[in-house]
Design goal:
heterodimer, A: 187 residues, mainly beta, Jelly Rolls, 8-stranded antiparallel beta sheet, 4-stranded antiparallel beta sheet, 1 helix, 6% helix, B: 164 residues, 9-stranded antiparallel beta sheet, 14 strands, 0% helix, globular
């Protein structure tokens, strides 16, 4: 992803005069709590190669943390897998998971027992999302202090084009003020 | 409606060795900021981030795989968030980093920072940082010891969060 984005950046910096390769498509900023946020109608963005979600999130779970999970096309069956590496502050741990009903973006987001006003930043890429010949792959970088820092590779074992993405707070709800922005990246 | 974004706001290339680079009076109209940094040192060192010239309130968690193995560390309420930490660079190596500041101008959130960085000599790492202030970020300083060398580059980009 870094090389892809750097390519975009270099193109812009040189003033190449081409069309934009990185566009804001939608933003949802919560004005009340919500257990999930959905981007639908993604088929209308098929002129983009990849999607990116940039999110700033926190949960109202009565605990120190909560997880953010992803489901695609409303598929709730065990058709997902993910592999994470995560820094906890004390150690680096890896967490593989197969036959899951979601992609979990490790590490967790802050919740009610964490310091006030502290959110987690997440950058999630969905590659070749409109392909009908590949299973869908995702990568994400996420973290916050003191919950940690994590990188996750996710897969959805289905070759259907992605038309709907749902971001889910596992145990609580996303709090008011959480922001989810969807971007399109052209090839 | 799609809004073209990822705008280059400022570009700095060092013409003399320097211990810091500062972006000030930052336009608050974007959702996120990204700094792409590619630098070198004239000795062994790390690059750090300080927001709004505040010498406290910066906390972080790191994760790295280096020539010394895997490592993770934390820092709390200090004067920096690291752009490099475990994978320290020596002279002759050229680290790079992509530094993300999300909701940097929000006044209802502490600020979130995500970093990916590394260099060929010593390893790769990622950091999450929190700046415990709800003030909008208007100044970002990148600083180091020893100096960063001539030719080091720092590009600041803005990413929209609202449609035009």
């Amino acid at each position: 992803m870094s090389f892809m984005l750097l390519g975009i950046l270099n193109s812009q910096a040189s003033g190449g005069g081409g069309a934009s390769a990185y566009d804001l498509l939608e933003t949802t900023t919560l004005t009340s709590t919500a257990s999930s946020v959905t981007f639908s109608g993604l088929g209308s963005y098929s002129d983009y190669a990849h999607l990116q979600i940039r999110a700033v999130v926190r949960s109202n779970r009565s605990s120190v943390s909560d997880n953010l999970d992803i489901q695609i096309n409303s598929d709730t069956d065990n058709n997902y897998a993910y592999h994470s590496i995560r820094g906890t502050g004390g150690s680096v741990v890896g967490e593989p998971a197969e036959a899951q009903n979601k992609i979990r973006t490790e590490s967790p987001m802050p919740a009610s027992s964490d310091p006030a006003n502290t959110f987690s930043a997440r950058i999630i890429d969905i590659l070749d999302f409109s392909s009908s010949s590949k299973n869908t792959t995702t990568t994400s970088l996420q973290g916050s202090y003191p919950r940690g820092i994590g990188v996750t590779s996710g897969g959805w074992n289905n070759t259907d084009a992605v038309t709907l993405l749902t971001l889910i707070a596992q145990s609580g709800s996303f709090v008011s003020g959480c922001r989810f922005s969807l971007f399109g990246i052209k090839a | 409606m799609a809004t073209p974004t990822y705008d280059l706001l400022e570009s700095v290339t060092l013409e003399t060795a320097a211990s810091s680079v500062t972006f000030s009076s930052i336009d608050g109209s974007y959702g996120d900021l990204v700094i792409v940094a590619d630098w070198g040192f004239d000795g062994e060192g790390d690059l750090d981030i300080r927001l709004n010239s505040d010498t406290s309130n910066h906390s972080f968690v790191t994760m790295a795989n280096t020539t010394s193995g895997r490592a993770s560390a934390t820092g709390e309420n200090g004067n920096y968030i690291p752009a490099s930490y475990h994978a320290s660079a020596d002279s002759g190596t050229y680290p790079s980093a992509i530094i993300n500041f999300l909701d940097y101008s929000a006044t209802d959130k502490n600020k979130s920072v995500l970093v990916r960085s590394g260099n060929l000599a010593s390893g790769i790492e990622a950091m999450s940082g929190t700046y415990a202030s709800t003030s909008a970020v208007t100044t970002i300083m990148l600083f180091s010891s020893p100096n960063m060398i001539i030719g080091s580059t720092f590009n600041l980009y803005g990413i929209a969060k609202e449609s035009a």
